[in-house]
Amino acid sequence: MPEYTTASRFRLSGLCFLLQIITIIIFAVFVRYSPESSPGFCSQQLNCSWRNQDAGFQHPRFRDVHLQALLGFGLLVAFLSRYRPGSVAISILIMAFAIQWAVLIQGFLHFFLNGKIYVGAQSMVSADFCTAAILISTGAVLGRVNPVQMLLLTLMGVILFSLNEYILLSLMGVRDSRGSLTVHTFGAYFGLMVSRILHQPHMDKCKKQQDTGNQPDVFAVVGTIYLWIFWPSFTSATTVRENAEPWAVLNTYFSLAASTLATLVLSPVLHEEGTLRMVQIQDATLAGAAMMGMAGEMLVTPFGALIAGFLAGLIPPLGFRFLTPVLCSRLKTQDTCGVHNVHGLPGILGALLGTLLTALATADAYGGRLEFIFPLVAQGSWTATDQVLCQLCGLPITLLLATLGGSLTGEFCLR
Amino acid sequence: MPEYTTASRFRLSGLCFLLQIITIIIFAVFVRYSPESSPGFCSQQLNCSWRNQDAGFQHPRFRDVHLQALLGFGLLVAFLSRYRPGSVAISILIMAFAIQWAVLIQGFLHFFLNGKIYVGAQSMVSADFCTAAILISTGAVLGRVNPVQMLLLTLMGVILFSLNEYILLSLMGVRDSRGSLTVHTFGAYFGLMVSRILHQPHMDKCKKQQDTGNQPDVFAVVGTIYLWIFWPSFTSATTVRENAEPWAVLNTYFSLAASTLATLVLSPVLHEEGTLRMVQIQDATLAGAAMMGMAGEMLVTPFGALIAGFLAGLIPPLGFRFLTPVLCSRLKTQDTCGVHNVHGLPGILGALLGTLLTALATADAYGGRLEFIFPLVAQGSWTATDQVLCQLCGLPITLLLATLGGSLTGEFCLR
Amino acid sequence: MPEYTTASRFRLSGLCFLLQIITIIIFAVFVRYSPESSPGFCSQQLNCSWRNQDAGFQHPRFRDVHLQALLGFGLLVAFLSRYRPGSVAISILIMAFAIQWAVLIQGFLHFFLNGKIYVGAQSMVSADFCTAAILISTGAVLGRVNPVQMLLLTLMGVILFSLNEYILLSLMGVRDSRGSLTVHTFGAYFGLMVSRILHQPHMDKCKKQQDTGNQPDVFAVVGTIYLWIFWPSFTSATTVRENAEPWAVLNTYFSLAASTLATLVLSPVLHEEGTLRMVQIQDATLAGAAMMGMAGEMLVTPFGALIAGFLAGLIPPLGFRFLTPVLCSRLKTQDTCGVHNVHGLPGILGALLGTLLTALATADAYGGRLEFIFPLVAQGSWTATDQVLCQLCGLPITLLLATLGGSLTGEFCLR
């Protein structure tokens, strides 16, 4: 992080104060708790066909909400193992701001009724998805932007994320319940584009990454364990019904297990020194999770999850070895924490896999689960082909919004 | 921690053995599991109008009990970031003893029937509240007392905490479901008073705190994450009904988010070096949680939680800068981990906010929730004014018991 | 870990790839998700009288499955504090492979029907038990075997564990719901036997253990906290019914508290330097948990759990002081992480305590819980004496299978 002058310190303090005050005022004017005691209040009038198309039926148990905080924290700790000095505290502040801001922006899009935003458990879960995407974005620029730029990036990122999510999930009916597209792909490419715009030819060197010594990394160990323990449960909190839940959780577990083993297959071949580093396992874990973001609930056999996870686990080692140097030298895009390898590519692959599975989805294979996963198809209002086309369109739209939004944000807000 | 002589080592070992044997004997004579399969057995004969006035109705799910262990551990890890050498192990031992002892003492006060104490999930939850308060107390004297003194402080602290809690919650009917008064305020001032009594003019120097180097503190990172993840869920385990739950959890989240941002507002102004340290964010998180201890379930709008959290987040930086030096030099009270700034003042402020909200509570604003939060008012046996007076009296009683108890404990047990 | 040559690196990579491909193929041929939406599908045709004799009735909530990942991770982090360099990453890989392999092997034994293995939540829970046992085994040989040997040890260990578990729980009807025998005792003695076979006279020195410096050990702190927080809940996820649950959880808590205090009693007497180290408390925590593996659900009074935990807490300090040196010099068995003191002996003691409690179990003491804990006795198809004999036979069978299997594995696979 660049040195602070007294002026910049006071500017940061002032901006932060201003943002918090503005947020409080908007909250005071617009935000109210759902009048119903049930969390995630979703009356007839509200647009409920959102993250989960039948969100109106479900009432995520409140106990689960707190687990959502983990997604962000898992990512946070994961980044610590790549880029440490001073960035930890700023990342937590970014989270604290992103959560408030996401509740507002998403509230206007989804829970706005009679001039008020009605927040509940569902709002918090959605806000945490958004926070996770923002943390992924910051992973690309960490160490090269100052806190004020971070706050502005958060401000814009939340708006763009919510817009993209609204278009995909609510307007188009894309099924992406754990964010292969909306969280991982969007977050990675938004951050990379900002990083590209902020490129300073004389300052940024394409250093070789992953050379932070070979001490067993405390943060990577803690981060990996967090992901293993909480990511599958995070999965379970966002899937619609008890019925659809088990497969998604088990698929995520199998995917994590296979992606971890994939690292062991590639690492001795790619790296001369041969010692496996925790941070590599952590990358594989994240990639395995990103891969299951869309396809997790659609896979109907365990070996599918194993294969997908294994492929996802191959991406980060190969990416860091062959892609990151090219990205840096040719495309002038630095990627501090390697989000392209860990979130971007696995996210895209996960979206493609999800689309493929949608094409293969038949009532025979899914049985009663079809109506939970593709309700519009089950109801007969869509054909399976419609759903496939819709899933397929999600990817270019996300990439477009992420790169366009990233370049505008970088050009006009952070310069 | 002072050096050990052989004699003191054996005395510690002997005392510990004696305490454990005595505890086992008392357990053997008095303590039985609740005959009912339902946790937190609460028959007609038992005084159930305790922590939650309608505890009789509720049966906290057992799954939640294990989450309680976190409160203590969150605090524990939090302290590690301030004062490390050798104190970790002792703190865990204090916890292990405090839990057993609290089950006994609180059992005699609440679950005593026909000559037996009937323990269940509810006992464990209450014992953990007590353990948290004791850990806060030890935070004030950490590093200046030996393990034997720690054990004696625990012995007395548990008794005084249980007495204070019994008077406030059971006898007076104060509503303080997550312990702004009973845990944070009591714990902080009990510890500070003991610290005052143990003051040794020639040995204690008022060192400047918060100068533990600027490496990203592993313990502070882990501690902060624990608090964010588990504190709101801790909240949810102790609130009465599903109906009252959502608001308390969401209020706590909003409070944590705002208090974290408050640190970023103040820190660049107060500290010349300008780098934000994890331990400051951790303090803000704790203060934001202490603030919601009483008011969390009473706030009916999200922006109230944001404002309260923001104010709570301002206290620790200001306190460490201006109050702790005065406390140490003028009042001769050292405060190793800064519990006065992090628990004491936010606890008091939280209690005052809770009282204010009680005064503003109307059946209109609360709707059906009134009977869960202020059952006596809802039933008509009390007026709202009675409840306000009762809440207001809780603060001086807690302060009196904490300071009086602390000075007696320091004077007669630890000298 | 020994140095890697290029050949050995490629051999590891190849073996790993081969194992993953074979696993995927077997999964593709045999493994399917349970057709029922309910986790742990257990139809009339399947042999359901397995881990919990009435597993057929229960449907562990899926939410709990993710908690299972913790058992392994708790142990993992626990070992990190004893033996660090490079072993972390390998241990996680072992876990990732063991989980997949255990799902297969246990699937063939328990969930095989019409040529397919039907996996669900129950499979994952069982696989995690198995993984925990394997991790305990690797704790004995950590640092003296290479990754290829680790993978082979996992391969054989999973098969032997599943066999032992099948004989004990399914064929004989032993009641050991949280693995005093099947996990702790089997894991420890299997690993020790492998360690004995791999003994190299000129290389292995009986170094004094526990001298890893006196910095407050981050890994031991994190490990201990994990165990405290998640072990009791792990307990709760595997016990049968809500009714039997509370006692098992509370017994585990009381046992952990007492075993932690026992360390404080012994440590100052045994160690001259007198400073209590986190790793000792962690050992006590593990021992206290191993002790409750079989007896946790059978104890009907809290003071029983306190006494048992206190005794368990005495074993590790005494074992490390007096037994480990003898084990190493006389029996030529090195024990890198001290699994004999922490898992082996407390596991045996726990099994003996469980047998004793079975002998004392009467319908009077247990009431309605008898049918959940000893269903065969409650149904009248067995006498209480039958159950006692059965429990008693479990110990020698486990020891026999562990030592025999360990020597065969060491001799024929790892040499």
From TrEMBL, chains A, B, C:
Q: Which residues form the signal peptide?
A: none
Q: Got a GO cellular component term for this one? A: plasma membrane
State the Pfam families in the record: Ammonium_transp (PF00909)
Q: Which residues cross the membrane?
A: 12-31, 65-81, 88-113, 125-143, 150-169, 218-235, 247-270, 299-323, 343-363
> Please, one GO biological process term?
ammonium homeostasis
Q: How does it sit in the membrane?
A: Multi-pass membrane protein
Any idea where this protein resides?
Cell membrane
Asked whether the UniProt record includes ATP-binding among its keywords, one would answer no
What's the main place this protein lives? Answer: membrane
Keywords, sorted A to Z: Ammonia transport, Cell membrane, Glycoprotein, Membrane, Transmembrane, Transmembrane helix, Transport
Which InterPro entries does the UniProt record give?
Ammonium/urea_transptr, NH4_transpt_AmtB-like_dom, RhesusRHD
A single Gene Ontology MF term assigned here is: ammonium channel activity
Residue ranges of domain Ammonium transporter AmtB-like in the record: 24-411
User: What does the similarity note say?
Assistant: Belongs to the ammonium transporter (TC 2.A.49) family. Rh subfamily.
Which PANTHER family does the record match to this protein? AMMONIUM TRANSPORTER (PTHR11730), AMMONIUM TRANSPORTER RH TYPE B (PTHR11730:SF42)
Q: Please give the name of this protein.
A: Rh family B glycoprotein
